[in-house]
Batch of 2 targets.
Target 1
Amino acid sequence: MSGHEEWFAPGGGMAAVKGFISPRSAQAISAILTHQMQTPIQGALAEIGTFLGKTFIGLALAAKPGEHVVGLDIFEADVGEKLVASLRRVLPGDRASHVRVAKRDSTTVTPAEWMRLLGSPARFVHIDGDHTYEAVLSDIQLATTFLADGAIVVLDDFMHEWYPDVSEGIIDALRVSKNLFPVAVIPRTGSVMGGGTKLVCTTPGAVDDCFRLLKAALPGTTFRDCRIAGKPAWAFFNYD
Ligand SMILES: C[S@@+](CC[C@H](N)C(=O)[O-])C[C@H]1O[C@@H](n2cnc3c(N)ncnc32)[C@H](O)[C@@H]1O
């Protein structure tokens, strides 16, 4: 098992960190990162809204040599210090030199700054920051300014009962985006407090491959064709 697989596995490293990612989402993200590791795709990995690193540390463990891993958060109270301490524990010494954590309101980050932070077009982005309509729209637009071909962008809390604003931001952003298409809805497992439903997206030419990957990563689930933001996509059924 590689580092991120151990991190995202049931009872793995992420279990010791407070945060929000359901087991099914962890399984899907882990499978995406494994697939990217086995293919030539290169690029930065980034998360907007790292909180304490439950997802972010898994991304840091999946970096290939020379790739940057970038985390943005407004870091209230001592969240930033705790994240850095966890990163040091999991990635000791110079193994963390590729990780860049910035205390920033993502809605104020310009595309030029984003590109500087990432260093190369992103191959994986997780968007889980401010849950207002405006911020979600802005974060997705920012992410789409610097994407590698075949990049995966995972959008948190799609169809969340408490955050309809997030869903509206996602739909509006995807309706106009030329380089980010929806692939599939990954329903959460269990209580919403354990992590929300995610929408996996990718660049236009990679949609079918990404769906096949998710289908293989989520055995035992049922899926159906659907439509999201005017584009064909899939939804996996939530038995739990
Ligand atoms: C739901 S938590 C993220 C959970 C995390 N991704 C995980 O896997 O556990 C949302 C995070 O977004 C951060 N946040 C809120 N507004 C933000 C903004 N404008 N820019 C960057 N981060 C923001 C919060 O500080 C919080 O840590």
Target 2
Amino acid sequence: MSDNIGSRKEIIIIGGGIIGCSTAYQLTRHPSFSPSTTTIKVIEASKHGPAQGASGKAGGLVAKWAYPKELVAVSFTEHVRLAEEHNGKDRWGWRFVGCGSWEGKGALLSKDSDTGVGAGGRRKSLEKKVGLDGTRASDPVSRQRKGLPKDLLWVDENLTHSYSSMAPDGDTAQVHPFLFTTSMMDLAIEKGAELISGRVTGLDISDGQVTGVTLVHNNSGQKETLPATHVIIAAGAWSPSILPSLPISATRAHSVTIHPKPSVTIAPYVLFTEIALPDRRGVTVSPEIYARPGNEVYACGPGDDSFLPKNVDDVLVDEAACDAIQKHVASISPELREGTVHKRQACFLPTVETGGGPIVGAASYIAQGLFIATGHTCWGICNAPGTAKALSELIMDGSIKCANLKRLNPSNFL
Ligand SMILES: Cc1cc2nc3c(=O)[nH]c(=O)nc-3n(C[C@H](O)[C@H](O)[C@H](O)COP(=O)(O)OP(=O)(O)OC[C@H]3O[C@@H](n4cnc5c(N)ncnc54)[C@H](O)[C@@H]3O)c2cc1C
């Protein structure tokens, strides 16, 4: 149970990623929320606003087969509801997608392919021509044998060894994570929440009760202590900088976005690939490739344990890692090879060192009024709505009603 049920609440959320922004949204939609009795402030360290970290640079998969199950169940339902209520299709690219595991070999590309435009592989002239009109000569029997869906035409059938669907239709969807996160924040602001640009430097705790946070404002550089009755730590990979006992570590991952030629149709699939590199015997790479609405394709590579900078704005992008992702996806898709690379980016996702997670709930044994919502690993986009709904119930009602999240309680991790 949290304190102050029914009395005036001053809620501070540390972190304007998908978890923080979704929590602000759910709090403002709670039946007992009223701006006259409850204030909600989201403090975000980036000078550029919300969703500058993993929440703006993730793939955006939302899946019934994600984990942990107890959080996925409520999150998937909430994603569907949010999309219906706020026109998520147009606002944040909500749609159902096919999702499969693709295995095959990459085509050997010439140096020209480094630009991401128009380079050929072993079947250069044929692929190039086909890429222009978005169709490809196809052998239905061969496609069926390999398991390739009829409309998945943006991977080279001849390089495909096998494709297998990972889930039944209707079990996998997607959002554009940056648009979803910023929409949650905007919708929360419409109902009275406030976004503050600054970096929290410390929690204020007195007599076992949270009393506020200290922050440095981005614009003025001024230090200030804001009073709070409830503080939610939702600072992703940076959460231990606020509460050092949190067992959260940071994993960096690179990604690129590619805009195929306008004449090309990219059917809505997300592929988990296993690509045998043509020039390096026995070596495989596994980029994830996400078709997105609006003629965009997102692809991400493996993680690394690079040093976490103090601020999300200082995350370093290794151009070579982005080049490699682009080359790998280009090696199996003429359509992506002929596209234009739009974004090259990197971000840190928060992982729970002890396994399991995320960590969601009240940390009253540290201080009354302190709540944790972090460690969402590779499923934070999927699980944000459920996390946020649970926290809103915990703070406004005193207990979580939408799910049984006992396994995720901070006392199991700290
Ligand atoms: C390559 C990649 C692909 C992914 N794909 C998917 C996917 O398809 N589906 C899925 O469900 N998940 C995916 N994820 C995981 C998902 O991105 C994360 O789990 C999620 O974004 C975590 O959200 P967050 O709000 O906890 O953290 P973040 O997005 O990192 O947000 C934390 C925020 O806190 C701010 N902050 C930090 N310290 C302070 C401070 N002291 N004061 C104020 N603000 C502070 C930061 O600036 C940051 O904006 C992917 C992750 C990666 C890296």
